[in-house]
Amino acid sequence: MLFAYKVPAVSRRNDRNRLEEQQFLASYDPSQFDRPSVTVDVVILTLRAGRLEVLLTQRKEHPFKGFWSLPGGFVGMQESLDEAAARVLREKGGLEGVYLEQLYTFGAPRRDPRTRVISVAYYALVEAGRIQEREGSALLRVVVPWEGEAGGPVEVEGGRSRRHPLAFDHAEILGMAVRRIRGKLEYVPIGFELLPERFTLRQLQQVHEAILGRKLNKDSFRRKVLASGRLEPTGELESGTGYRPAELYTFKKDRP
Fold first, then answer.
1. Domain 37-184: CATH superfamily, name plus number
2. pTM for the whole structure
3. Residues in domain Nudix hydrolase (predicted)?
């Protein structure tokens, strides 16, 4: 005896919904809504001579021709935000496999005089030895005119302490990056990204002082970082110094 299979009502409803959605998408006109452009801007931070520096590029065209700006670019239609940021790092900074984190979205209506542009900012922390200043790019010192984590835009300066204005709202983006890393420094070991694989406690303290913008007590700092369990002694001493060599440490990565 044969039994007829009755299609459940829920299944018939789902099929009807899928068909209606396909018809809707086929007739959908995206031009009926204004669409802003989307870019990514990457704050590439490093440390040289105990100073926090940022990699900038000099604009070759309008708007803000001749101004320094953060490396950035428009997001491709088939590209995720993270992929676009990684591409900017690779193409404009020659960098891959570095610490990269999404920072904030900047969307003031008139932040770009060309058109409505929303920028998703990222920041990268890079050991100075990995950065190569290409033609049209330079590492400039970050000048933070405020203390703590409650400030606004920051400035940059180059040779002879000359201050350079930044294009668009990039001074605000850079200031946000400084606030972010200052806030995370105490509970996330991001400072190690600015150091070589083996480093001294003095070098680690210099990283913290450069980010925080203030001097730290040597003894208190060393007790704190050694008690954190994040450091592993190598049993080696630094070389090529004109003073008593210090012990070298590595960052203790989480093990499975």
1. Nucleoside Triphosphate Pyrophosphohydrolase (3.90.79.10)
2. 0.88
3. 36-169
